[in-house]
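Troubleshooting: if your tokenizer reports a length mismatch, compare your output against this known-good record of 68 residues.
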Amino acid sequence: MTDFNPPMSQRRLHRSLTDRYVAGVLGGIAETYGWNPTLVRLIFVASFLLPGPQFLAYIIAWFIMPNG
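Known-good structure output:
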């Protein structure tokens, strides 16, 4: 069986149902773009060293992104 990867325009951002620690936002981002979920989480945590609304963006994404 071959693994089907739809083109970027057909991918839909969603929260992960299987790869989640809190709400599945970062796991969903990783699933959508084919990235390593651990790397996405490490980058998110490292981003707290920079000024910005990272935590607020995560909470907003939690409510906006549908479950996948």
